[in-house]
Each structure stands twice: as structure tokens, then as C-alpha cells.
Design brief:
- By secondary structure, the chain is an alpha/beta fold.
- A hairpin with a 2-residue loop joins strand 5 and strand 6.
- Keywords: Riboflavin biosynthesis, Transferase.
- Its EC number is 2.5.1.78.
- Belongs to the DMRL synthase family.
């Protein structure tokens, strides 16, 4: 069965300092969402992290809530959880593509986000993927966020320049003998 192929799972991320995540979940399909949250919570707790959970109406609101939280709070990372089941209209494609694209854009801005928004053909596929004892996609999304946080902390701790960022000691302000030059 294709859904049960073996794949490599990275070792759990480890942290020297506490880590705090925000789980943003759309409970549109409440039983599926609850299973995904349970998987995410177990993974965060196993890594020694703490978390808060907020709910939003649908998958399209998940990236917006993450963006608001990033501007107004102090979370290290985010876990996006939801489920979109294909229906009879093209709305499915819009919700899947736009929520995924928005999460990717937030990630490219530096946010550590594990994307656990399921995009499935039917409820049976969603149930298997959400079940913490089966595919545990909620736990996988939390693990992804934790790994990104660990990576950010690793590189954030470096004292040398990274990429195109100038080293802080390379920035010199023009001064006159009487102090900084006024323009």
C-alpha cells in the first residue's frame, strides 16, 4: 500500500534553551484536527518544548494567524494544522494552493513553520494521515518546525557574517572630530 511506504525520519531535534511553539489549527473536521493536535503536542513535549493552541475557521486563515502572531508575540516556531478534502468544486485547489503558498512565503521570511495542512481526496485518507498511531502528520509537522528552530538557533549563534549580511564590526559611521557628522 503506497500510504505505508517506509521513509527516513530524522532524529528528534534537541535544545539547550526552552522552545515555545504556537499550534494554529483549523478544526473544520474536528476529529481529524484533534488527532493532529495530539500528535503535534506529543512531539513538542518529547522535545521538551511548550506550546499554545489557537483555532481559526479554515485552512486559508492559518497563515494569516501565523503572520499576526509573529508580529505580536514571541513564539520560536509554528505548527500549521488543518485538513482540506476534495469536493465537487475548484475551491479545493484554491484553498490547498493558497494556504501552502502563504505558509511558504512566511517561511522564506524566516519563520519556522511545520506545514501539517492535509490535502486529501477523501475522509479515509485524512483519518489515516491524522492518526498519531498511524502516519501522524501532526507530529511530523511539529518535528519539522522543531528542526527549523534548531537550525535557526545554530546559525543565529554564529558570530561571523552569514550570506550577504555584513559583520557588525564592519559597519563604521562617519564621524568628525566633534562627534557624529550632522546632515
Amino acid at each position: 500500500m503506497a500510504g505505508h511506504e517506509q521513509h527516513y525520519i530524522m532524529p528528534r531535534a534537541q535544545f539547550d534553551k526552552p522552545v515555545k511553539l504556537l499550534i494554529v489549527v483549523s478544526p473544520y473536521y474536528k476529529d481529524i484536527a484533534d488527532n493532529m493536535v495530539a500528535g503535534a503536542v506529543a512531539e513538542i513535549e518529547a522535545a521538551g518544548g511548550t506550546y499554545d493552541v489557537i483555532q481559526v475557521p479554515g485552512a486559508l486563515e492559518i497563515p494569516t494567524a501565523i503572520g499576526i502572531s509573529d508580529r505580536a508575540s514571541n513564539f520560536d516556531g509554528y505548527v500549521a494544522l488543518g485538513c482540506v478534502i476534495r469536493g465537487e468544486t475548484t475551491h479545493y485547489d484554491t484553498v490547498c494552493n493558497d494556504s501552502s503558498r502563504a505558509i511558504q512565503l512566511l517561511g522564506l521570511q524566516g519563520l519556522c513553520i511545520g506545514n501539517g495542512i492535509l490535502t486529501v481526496e477523501n475522509r479515509a485518507q485524512a483519518e489515516v494521515r491524522a492518526d498519531p498511531k498511524d502516519q501522524n502528520k501532526g507530529g511530523g509537522a511539529a518535528a519539522a518546525a522543531l528542526h527549523l528552530i534548531a537550525l535557526g538557533r545554530k546559525w543565529g549563534a554564529q558570530t561571523k557574517g552569514v550570506g550577504f549580511k555584513a559583520r557588525s564590526d564592519a559597519i563604521i559611521l562617519a564621524e568628525t572630530s566633534n562627534g557624529p557628522k550632522n546632515a
